[in-house]
Specification:
The protein has 367 residues and is mainly β. It contains five helices and 20 strands.
Amino acid sequence: MKRNISELLDDLAVDDIELNNAPLLSSPKIREKTMERAGISRKKRHSGIIFRVAVIAAVLTSLMVTAFAADTVFNDGRLFGGFFGDTLSDKQVAQMEDIGKTFGESVTSHGTTITTLKAIADGNTMYLHLRVEAPIGTVLPDLDEDQYYSFTDLQGQLPIMKAWSDPSDEWVQMYVSHCVTPLADEDPTDHIKEFVIRFEENGTDTIFNGPWQKVLTLPGLYIHSTVSKEKQTLFRGLFQFDVTINDENRDQSKLVIEVEDATYYDEKFDFTTTVSKVTITPLRIDVECEYTQPNDKYIFPNGGPVELVMKDGTVIKAINAYLDARESGYHPDSIVASACYSWFDVPIVVEDIDYVRVGDDYIADVN
């Protein structure tokens, strides 16, 4: 017989469990924290206790769910709308919780409401999930391959992110760039859409995850073309949000590898890459390297290949050997250089890396 949680609670006393306000957690983490709060060790968990804790955990879950974040609690990470896939491990979900924050702040300007849902960030990358509700009649469509959404306006005004500086007692502008990914939309002909914005550092002083208060200002939403200068304004406004994330243990999820004599030679394009340092954070890999000039003007060395071999045997191709500008989706002559960094498809748990393979044959045993 199907029963509701409220019915199960009728005969269950849980007065000894204190319910505090807390950030959103995944289902496994809620169950674990409930066990801990009830004072139940792993060795003493029999079926009756587990059932009781499962019901209590359900209560905790229901108390922490908001209208727009319910699927995060029940489907581990789904608040990002599947942006990172649907098969994240418990460790990856926990990693997202550690480096993330749930917001739920809404700002309305000129009839449009933007709500920041959740963000995750490491030192040089931030992913911000938000919901846009434009005025009725303004369509937020699915786009063709040669179009993309941007929060950069027609005059080139970028989203502005500022951080509070304690030493100077003032707001300091952070130099960032961004790209926008629209999430799957059940009705691409309406005025509502969810997006994930990836912000990336554009300067050595940019740190997205840290103790400084950070404020983001968006000027509106626009559609740009990759092959022409054509642009379309969807709406304008002034949308300002606090996007502060501060994971005090952020340095523990960062791996820096000093590399010696790691080289790669590409026979087809006749260039050699020499790597001196590899930095891995949950969201990104950065490579310090030098390289010789390829024999093709559209080939830009990236610092790779670099592969992460995980403890479970999984191999992650973290960064490629080069970028071919002709495959970028943009006009190849618009690519001025490649960057020696790349983003992971899903957050990486650094402690799960067994070793890192760099270049032709260099191996760094890290764990």
